[in-house]
Amino acid sequence: MPLHMTKIAFRCESVAHLRDWLESHEEEGEAHLTTRYLPKRHAEMAGGSLYWILNHRLIGRSPIMGFTDAPGGRIWIRLEPRLISVRSRPRRAHQGWRYLAAEDAPPDLDGDEDEVAEMPPHMLGDLTRLGLV
After folding, report:
1. What is the pLDDT of residues 90-126, one digit of tens each?
2. Fewer beta carbons within 10 Å, N or C terminal of the chain?
């Protein structure tokens, strides 16, 4: 099972804003995030995803395509330019990225995922706690 990572959707105001940013890189074939260090467990992330945190909730994922050197001695996290909605879960904010084991990753949403993903975070949290989403 692949290893995943979590990251704050920094400067994103909404799920739609994050989706638009990712999809704006479709012509390039991949979106890049810059990080200082190559994850020590990067080989385990083949087939994994980056799970996005927005307003203290996991809201979606982008499949990881790999890692490459970036200018200035940094590393690019190469992502597929799409956002796959997942069953929202609470997640504390953190700096940088954190590993996420496959068994701890939330499942993808089926069906009306765009409508669910666009709900206000507090409403989505309440519905999730009630087991309705």
Report:
1. 899 899 999 999 999 999 987 555 556 566 766 766 7
2. N
Residue 127, Cα to own-chain centre: how many angstroms? 21
- Give the helix, strand, coil percentages of the chain, each rounded to 5: 25, 35, 40
Run of H or E including 127? helix 121-129
The model carries a pTM of 0.84
Q: What pLDDT, on the 0 to 100 scale, is given for residue 109?
A: 84
CA 94/CA 16 separation, integer angstroms: 22
Output the furthest CA–CA distance in the chain (Å, rounded).
47
In 3D space, the residue among 114, 63, 105 whose CA is nearest the CA of residue 85 turns out to be 114
Can you list the positions of beta strands (E) in 10-83? 31-35, 49-54, 57-70, 74-79
What own/partner pairs with CB < 8 Å and gap ≥ 24 does 35-38 have? 35/74, 35/75, 35/76, 35/77, 35/96, 35/97, 36/74, 36/75, 36/96, 37/75, 38/67, 38/75
